[in-house]
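Q: What structure does this chain adopt?
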Amino acid sequence: MAFRSTQQLPQPPTKSSFFQQRDALVGEIAMSLEHVLQNINKLNRSLEGVIAVGNEFGAVEALWSQFESVMAQEAGDGNAKEGQEKEDEDGDNEDEAETGAQEEEGGSEEKRRAR
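A:
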């Protein structure tokens, strides 16, 4: 039994340089991924803040939209009245133009008859 106690237990083989480098790179990658995750979380919080600020302006935007639609209706009513007046004026001008054209045609016919 003394023989066994003097024997040393087998030592695990030392890692080769490949495995040491691999472990170092895996650790570095893990740290980099942690940094990426932290930065993504910061970005997410920032985006949530931007969205919250944008949502605060929702009521103001709705009010301006309502104002714009009311002004567009009033402008449309005013333009419709102006358009109606212009059509009436244009209609008078068209009647005058037609009468003038008929008179010119009539004058041409009278000249032909006179010949």
